[in-house]
Amino acid sequence: MPTLQIINPGFSDEEFAIANYGKFELGISDLINVSIMRRMDIIEIYTKDTGYETAGVKVVLYELSQEPEFERVLNYLKNRGFKLLDEK
User: Taking residues 9-20, what's their average pLDDT?
Assistant: First the structure.
């Protein structure tokens, strides 16, 4: 079963983000995420932000969005009170 672990960024993650700003199609906070992902050996992310691919991270959410049950899962999350990023 998958688990969720909260990882706090460190100074080295911020340094990575600053050093790589403009090299990838990502903002500073996303680059901090990339640094943490590299440190933790995470190679894929569930997001629709394809900018992560420019940093060598596999983006899988848009692939999942093509699955027949994807909309049902989104509706389930909304009904449970989750606010999705593309909602206002």
Answer: 97
CA distance linking residue 13 with residue 32, whole number of Å: 5
Task: Name the 3-class secondary structure at 59.
Answer: strand
pTM for the model: 0.69
State the DSSP code for 24.
S
Cβ atoms of residues 47 and 61 within 8 Å: yes
| Nearest alpha-carbon partner for 19 in 53, 55, 63 | 55
Question: DSSP 3-state assignment of 58?
Answer: strand
Q: Could you tell me which residues come within 8 angstroms of residue 27 by beta carbon, excluding any fewer than 6 positions away?
A: 21
> Does the pLDDT of residue 88 top 60, yes or no?
no
